[in-house]
Amino acid sequence: MGKKKKRLEIEAEAKINNPENSQTDAESNLSFLNGDSHNKKKKKKPKAVKENDTEAKAVEIPTVSIAIAGSIIDNAQSLELATRLAGQIARAATIFRIDEGLLPPLDAPHHLRKHEWSPYREGITLKERATSYVGTMVDVGLDKNILVDQVLEPGVRVTVAMGTNPNFDSDLPCQVVSSSKPREEAGKYWGYKVRYASNISSIFIDCPYKGGYDYLIGTSEHGLIVNSSQLTLPAFRHLLIAFGGLSGLEKSVEEDNKLKGKNVHDVFDLYLNTCPHQGSRTIRTEEAVFISLQYFQEPITRALQGAAS
User: How far is Cα 63 from Cα 245, in angstroms, rounded to an integer?
Assistant: First the structure.
């Protein structure tokens, strides 16, 4: 409870402080991995797309988010290497089923091949209009475009319920659904979202989940060393795991004006070294992401199983 109180105090102080004092230093620029964007200025959804009341009342599913310092891109020696680095992060987020975190083929469940059947598909609305029904044509990666039963602007990304016909030969309109429905209804991992945060404090303040993150973990070579098998995490709704940049999370906290007088132990519930006794003098952040997410697999599973029982 003490850590939660501290976090609430941090958020309250940040809201009171002048937003013009927010950091622009590269060390403070953090990127979030989990498909849709969560910018401060949220884009309005097309009015035709509405979530059903039953979806809003769905049972909340625990989520795992990762925060990564944007300054890791500064270490890339070329645009190609920077792109590859971002791709490695994207791969890690997909492999370990991260919710909030584009490039090389991720082979995520929602990146379907055109011959594969799935009850849901991601698509982009087109300018082309249907002739026999009122609706919108959507490219969902099949040999032919499909029709959805809503009139939408072109260029909108949508999740489409494909019905029950695996032969893709039905001319009946399909339904646009919430991007969370594949996970809620079918238990399918459906990719991650990406959010930009200008500093650490804005990670908490702009959290897209109701109630915010309820458990925060920081990773650092200066953190506590605990074997993965001995790590016990509490039951959580929304877990956040943060990774520092070239100078670590300590630097990011130090340079955040909204966290003056605080250190990493004040900000995070747990501060861990997930790769002790390393052979290299440094571990790159993209390497640390893979190492750490593997380290947390068993503790997260145990926490979720404990909550379910």
Answer: 23
